[in-house]
Amino acid sequence: MEEETKSRFKRICVFCGSSSGKKSSYQDAAVELGKELVDRRIDLVYGGGSVGLMGLVSQAVHDGGRHVLGIIPRTLMPREITGETIGEVRAVSDMHQRKAEMARQADAFIALPGGYGTLEELLEVITWAQLGIHCKPVGLLNVEGFYNSLLCFIDKAVDEGFISPTARRIIVSAPTAKQLVKELEEYVPEYDEVTSNLVWEEVERLNYVSGIGRPDVTTHRLVFLGLCPKKTRFHMHTDE
């Protein structure tokens, strides 16, 4: 048995599909990532489902003896949880709370292949890093080039002046779990002159009233405590 490797991360949040995908390589990568987290003694934070790639990565981490925290909106529980739940499941009221709680709990983020939901979660934490809201590493597990088109789009946006070279370097990409986690361990955040001077204390987030198409704006106080020396670890207070 190989000796376990101690990580700088206590928990990593994994974004991935509630489907398994057509290629077995996607499923293999989810299991491989789970085992890599176990080898490095890293706990898992994820979207709480027990189906698709979410189920595979969470089961691998749980089987390896590490803590699994799944965060899921109550509405999605019948759809994304089948049979036995895996590890600790924390139910929240909506998608906004799900993403905020996953971000608060995690020290880094990894995206496996997935669909719209995975992309939305991924791009939000990239944007937050760009704005200096957090400085936690963000990685793409680019299984068989799954994310090549996305990376090409981002490079095009850099070429056209919509994304800065500094912001492009937020994204860490690798084809295997072992290589990706290693690169995330070595990641050092960069800041430009604008974001380095931003102080994030209060932001307005949109909460959509159930059954109504109009947004209801409520204020949330966000305090970020994290991996950067001048930042704070992600903590959230609401007006509720």
Automatic annotation (TrEMBL):
Organism: Actinidia rufa
SUPFAM superfamilies, A to Z: MCP/YpsA-like
The protein's Enzyme Commission number: 3.2.2.n1
Protein name per the record: Cytokinin riboside 5'-monophosphate phosphoribohydrolase
Function statement: Cytokinin-activating enzyme working in the direct activation pathway. Phosphoribohydrolase that converts inactive cytokinin nucleotides to the biologically active free-base forms.
GO molecular function, one term: hydrolase activity, hydrolyzing N-glycosyl compounds
Family: Belongs to the LOG family.
Catalytic reaction(s) noted: N(6)-(dimethylallyl)adenosine 5'-phosphate + H2O = N(6)-dimethylallyladenine + D-ribose 5-phosphate; 9-ribosyl-trans-zeatin 5'-phosphate + H2O = trans-zeatin + D-ribose 5-phosphate
Enzyme class of the recorded protein, top EC level: hydrolase
GO biological process entries: cytokinin biosynthetic process
Record-linked PANTHER family: LOG FAMILY PROTEIN YJL055W (PTHR31223)
A Pfam family recorded for this sequence: Lysine_decarbox
An example Gene Ontology CC term for this record: nucleus
Keyword set, alphabetical order: Cytokinin biosynthesis, Hydrolase
